[in-house]
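Predicting holo structure, adenosine-5'-diphosphate bound.
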Amino acid sequence: MSAAKPRFAIVVFPGSNCDQDCHHVATELLGCDADYVWHRDTDLKGADVVILPGGFAYGDYLRAGALARFSPVMETVTRFAMDGGPVLGICNGFQVLLEAGLLPGAVRVNRGLRYVCKDVHMRVENASTPFTRLYEPGQVVKMPVGHGEGNYTAPPETLTELEYEAGIVFRYCDESGRVTDEANPNGATAGIAGIANREGNIVGLMPHPDRCAEGLLGNEVGRRMFESAVSSLAPA
Amino acid sequence: MTSGAHTRDLIAEHNLSAEEFARILEILGREPNLVELGVFSAMWSEHCSYKSSRIHLKKLPTTGPRVIQGPGENAGIVDIGDGLAVAFKMESHNHPSFIEPYQGAATGVGGILRDIFTMGARPIASLDSLRFGHLDAPRMRHLVDGVVRGIAGYGNCMGIPTVGGETTFHPAYDRNILVNVMSVGVVPSHRIFRGRAEGAGNPVIYVGSKTGRDGIHGATMASEEFAGDETRRKRPTVQVGDPFTEKLLMEACLELFELDAVVGIQDMGAAGLTSSSFEMAGRAGSGLEIDLSKVPVRETGMTPYEILLSESQERMLLVARKDRLDTVLEVFGKWELEAVVIGRVTDSGRVVAFFDGRIVADLPVAPLSERAPVYDRPRVPPTPVLSRGWEELPEPASYGACLRKILATENIAQKSWIWTQYDHMVGTNTVERPGGDAAVLRIKGTSKAMALTSDVNPFFCACDPYRGAAIAVAEAARSIAATGARPLAVTDCLNFGSPERPEIMGQFEAAVRGLSDACRALSTPVVSGNVSFYNETDGRPIPPTPTVGMVGLLEDVSRQVRMPFRREGDRVALLGRTRDELGASEFLRTIHGRDDGPCPDVDLEAERRLVELLVRLADERRIASAHDVSDGGLAVALAECAMASGLGVEVRLEPGVRPSALLFGETTGRALVTFAPGDESSVRAAAETADVPLDVIGRVGAGRLAIEMAGRALVDEPVAELSDIWTTAFARSMEESAEVL
Amino acid sequence: MKVEVRVYPKEGVLDPQGRAIASALGRLGHETVSDVRAGKIFFIEVEGDDPVAVEAEARKMAEELLANTVIEGYDVRIAAQP
Amino acid sequence: MKVEVRVYPKEGVLDPQGRAIASALGRLGHETVSDVRAGKIFFIEVEGDDPVAVEAEARKMAEELLANTVIEGYDVRIAAQP
Ligand SMILES: Nc1ncnc2c1ncn2[C@@H]1O[C@H](COP(=O)(O)OP(=O)(O)O)[C@@H](O)[C@H]1O
Ligand SMILES: [Mg+2]
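Done. C-alpha cells:
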C-alpha cells in the first residue's frame, strides 16, 4: 500500500468480535495497512491510528469494558492518545474508553433492557474531530447499532462541559435530524451517541461505522469516519 | 465401585432394556461395573445412538457432486468452489429450553457452534427455528422471552450473527417447545478437520471449562446411590453457558488449525467425555487410554462416573500430533484456556479409563459406537387429516378485514421484536438481513454469497407428515431461489414424540420419506441433521416437526434479488397455479377457528422447475423483485412485498377458485416476481421454456394494496395501515405481558 | 418500608461472571482472593409497616420475577437501603 | 474469610432496570411496591483472618473494579455467604 497511507492498529481483547470487520475496512476498503494488536502486547507497531473494536471483551462480564481496561495494551493506548494520536472506540471499544477514563461518563443497560440491533439516525454535532472531519456539521447519518449497554450518562457538570466544549460528536435523531425520544434506541442522556475528549483526538460512539462502509451492505456512510482519519493524517 | 449383579432397578434407571443388558453381558463376557453401565446407558441412549431412527435415516439421499462430508461427522460439508466449502448442521435443545429457557437456548447455540468450528470452519451465521405453544398458555411469554434472550446472549457474545429463522405458535407445543438452531461456517476445502482419534501414541488433550456435575441426565438417580447425598444436593440439572470461554475456544482452535498440529477434534456434547472419546476412537477404529484423575474438575469429590458423563459446556477433546504437543499447549495458553493431556491413542480397539491409578472402565469401542443397537420399531401409518367441510363455509363479508386480522396473528406478524435482539450484522457479511425470504451472506474474498433458510409448516405436518415434510424442503428451496441462489444441500432437525408409540414411528417414517423424495427431486442432499424424540407430555405429542435447514449458493452476489417491490409501474406476475385449497391455512385458523385439512398438495417436479426458473431469471437480471408465496397465501405475500417497500400494488385476479382460496389459500409451488414492462416478453419466454405457468396479475403502484376479481374489489387497503398492524402486533403482544421485563 | 432481596447462583451452578471477576482481581494483585460469586441485589420500597407481611410479599416477588429459581437462590431481609 | 460487596446506582442516577422491575411487579399485582433499585452483590472469599485488613482490601477491589464510581456507589461488609 502507498507509503503516504496511515497505518491502523486494531486492538484485540479476548472477546473482541468486530476486530476483523474493522481490519476489513482499513485494508480491503481503504487500502491502508493494519495490524492486530493483542491485548497483552504493548507495541502499537508504529500505528498512526488506533481502533478499539466492538465485541464483548472478557464477555462483558461484570460491566461492558470493565475488565478490558486493565489489559496491558491500554497503557500504550493511553500514552498514544495523550500524545495526540487519533483513537476511535466503536461500541464495546467506546465502553472500554469510558471505563478506562479516556472519555468521560458511563453507559448503563439500555432503557428497554434488551440488546438492540438495527439502523438508527445520528446528527453530526462535531465535524472537526479526526474521525468526523469529512462529514458536514449537522449532517444526518444512518448507522447500525448493536448493543445491550449503550445508555450513556454522566454527572451534570460533565454533561455541561461536553455541551460547551463540543464534546458531543453524535446525537441520535430522526431522519429529519430532530433529536427525539423515539429516535433514541437506548435512553442515552441528551440523545448522546458519541463523544470526544477536549482535544478531539479520542472519539467513541455506540453505533457501528464498520458495519456500513461499503455499498454491498447497502450503506457506505460509516466509511467516511475511517477516511476522515486518513485525510487528517495526510501530509498537507 | 460395584460388585455382583445389578438390580433390575439400576438397569431400568439407566434406561436399558433387559435385552440391551443381556447384550452388554454378551459383549463384555462379564458384568459391567457401574461406570461401564453408565457409559453403555449414555452411548445407547436414543440421543447418542439413533437406535430408533437409523434404519429410516438410511433412506435419505446424502451424496452429490458437491458433498465433501455427509452425515456422521460433527457437521456436513459441501464444496462452493474457490477452494472453499461450507460446513453446516442443525441441533435441537428442546427439553432444556422448556426447563430454563435462557440457559437452555444459550447452550443450544453454544453446542451447534462447536460442531461447526471443530470441522475447521469459521462460523459465519446462525438461524433459529422456534416452536412455541399458544402465547396465552402458562409461562409461554416467559419462555419466548427467555429463549430469545438466551440465543441473543450467546450468539451476540460469540460474534456470530443470527440472520434468520422462523417462529411458529401452535397449542400442541404448549408443554413441549422446540428450539432448533442451525449454524453455518466456511472452511478451506483442503483443511477440514474430523472427529478421529488416529495415530497410536498421540496425546489426547482436554481443553476448555472445568468439568462440573452439570446435566448428568437419565442415569442420575443410579449414580447418586454411590456418589452420596452431597452430590444429590449439589448436582444442578441445568447447564449454564459461558459464551466468553467458547469464544476463546473458537479463536484458539481456528488459530491452531493453521499449524498442522491437530489430528482430530470433537466437542463434548451430550454424554460429554464418554461420547466424544468413544466416537473419536470409533471413527478411527483405534482405542484410547484416558486418566480421569487428570480431568480438570470444578467441584470436589467428583466420581469417575460423574466425570465421564458430565455435560458441562465449552469443553473439547482433541488428539494432537505427538511432535506438536508443545504448539497445541502454547496456543491454548495464549488464549488463557486450560488444556491438559489426559491420555493417549492406542490401537487396542478399546477405551480404557483410569482413576487414581485404577482401571474404572475397560470397554470395546465398536459395539458402543458404530455397532450400537438398531431397532425397527413397530409403526402404524398416519391417517391424513382431511376436510371437515370447510368447503361449505360462507365466504367472508370483508376480505380486507380478514387480511388485517391475519397480518396481526403471531404466526404471520413480523418478528422484528425477535431479530432486533440478535446481532445479525457482526462479521459484515449480511447482505440480506432477517425479513427477506432467505438470509444472504457474502463470502469475503470471492464474488459469491450463501443463501440460508429454515422452514417447516407444522400445521401441514399435523395433517400429513409425508406432504408436510416434502413441502418444507420445497418451501426452503423456493425461499433460497427467490434470492437468486441455487439450493445446494440440506440439514434437518426431526422433532417428534415418543418412538415407542407406533403412531409416532409411523409419522417419522412418513416424514423421512417426504424429505427423501423432495431432496431427490430438488437435488439437495441431506449432509447433516439431528433427531429429537420424546417431545411429548402426558401422552400428548407435538405435531411432527421435521425442520429443514437449507443452504444455497449465489455465484455472483451482485445478481441477488430481494423481496420488496422496486419501482412503481413494474409488472407483477404470479408463477405457478393456485388450486382451490384452504386446508391447514392461517385463514381457516384465524377467521374460522378450524384446523381442517387437507394439507395442500405438492408437485415436486413443478417445484424443481420453479426453482430453476427463479435462479435463471435472477442470473439474467430480468426481475426487479421476487418473493415466495407461503404462510397466509397470495394476499399476505403481496402485502409483504408492499409493506417492505412502502409501495402499493394493483392486482386483477381471474376467477376460477373461490376468492378466499385465491387470496389466502396456501397452495404450494408459487412465487411472485416483478419486472419492468419492457422485460415482460423475455420473462414470459423464460417461463414457457421452463414450463412454469405465469400470469401477469397487476402492477406496482402507489400507497394502496388493491385486489379485484372479475371487476369486483376484494381488497383495498392503505399499505401504511397494514404495515403498522403487521410490524407492531407481535411486540405489543409480548410487551403487554407481566411475564416479560 | 424497605426490603432487600439478594439473588445468587445456587451451589454447584457455574458462575462465569464470578469466575471472570476472580481472575481479574488476581491479575490486579489481589492474590488473596480465592473465589467470587456474583449475584444481584434489589432494594425494594414497599408500602405497609408489618415486617412479616412485607417479607412474605418480597418472597413472592423473588419467586415470581426476581430470582430464576432453577439456578438461583435468594434471601430476603428487611433492611435499610444505602 | 467471606466478604460481601454491594454495588448500587448512585442517588439521582436513573436506574432503568429498577424501573422496569418495579413496573413489572406492579403488573404482577404487587401494587404496594413504590420503588425498586437494582444492584449487584459479590460474595468474595479472601484468605486472611484480619477483618479490618480484609475489609480494606475489599474496598480497594470495589474502587478499582467492582463499582463504576461514576454512576455507582458500594458498601462492604464481612458476612456469611448464603
Ligand atoms: N426466530 C427468528 N429469528 C430470526 N429471524 C426470524 C425468526 N422468525 C422469523 N424470522 C425471519 O422472518 C422472516 C419471515 O419468516 P417466515 O414467515 O418463516 O418466512 P417464509 O414464510 O418466507 O419462510 C424471515 O426472514 C425469517 O428469517
Ligand atoms: Mg417459513
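The two ends of chain B are 49 Å apart (CA to CA).
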